[in-house]
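ok so I'm stuck.
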Amino acid sequence: MTDNSSVNDFTPENYTMMQAFEWYVPADQKHWQRLRTAVLGLKATGVDNLWIPPGCKGSSQQGNGYDIYDLYDLGEFDQKGIATKWGRKGDLVQLVHVAKEAGVGIYWDAVLNQKAGADRVEQCQVVEVDPNGWRCNALASPKLTLVETAQEPLPAPIKSTAGLVSIFQEEVKHTPAKSTDYNNANGRTAIYRILGDGKNWSNFVDKEKGNYDYLMFADLDYTHPEVEADVKAWTTWLCGQVPIGGIRFDAIKHYSKEFLRSLVEHLDTSVGPGWFLVGEFWQDSVEAMTTYIRNMQHKFSLFDAPLVYNFSQLSNTENADLTKVFDGSLVQVEPVNAGE
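replied:
not stuck anymore, here's the structure
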């Protein structure tokens, strides 16, 4: 039987992305080296792109990078140790170049919601909110106290590499954070919303708990023009340091989608269109996820959390019907923008 269909009738090849780390990788600063030696073998097995862990300096060498300390330190400055948990900047650069030569793309894990490990505290007016219930409800009257607000008094490393000084390393009138979880004055752990002119949680975040802006550590304030400009400048700087082909954005339901849309537009103009951009938007509502994708003008993908739930349910069901695995999933309604 002759197949008369044209090649254009076939579905384009799907590319495979592999998460190239897990939470309990040894904190021996050798992960970039291990990955470099594995690239060719991974390519031979069909892996096209590697989602690597956050490569920026965390608050400790044991942290996985979600305890983000300095966006501009990729493991080369002696602050919180020199290397990150994953290794030194030189090892990272070698990995990325080996991957590029092998035809394997690198996707960066960008942690932009919070900062951790501040080197000093600030005295701020704060109000404690209900951590488990409706976060818009204050539990006490506002008070003046000492909190960590993402400040770092170390401008010299940035000047030496990029001619830039991050606002997190300068004295600023408007603190870069809008909430935090620790009161340094009395040692109490809670959720504190920082008060000030125009300072509040974003309206463009997930509505779980009333407002799910706060997640952890010092929560960045993207209504602060200097914070927004600083992070946009960092993305441009990063692309000049390591030739990546995409970004996985961490915890996007916890910070302003208006800021993220602006950042995507910045990437289009500064590094060029065509990057793979995907976000962690952990939601079981397909409607909420499709609305987010449409607000991003389909320039952005989301990991298919409902599909993960389907697999979990099927794996615990006798005589499970695999033909229903895509029912209610994001890939069913937005196949091009669903990361699965």
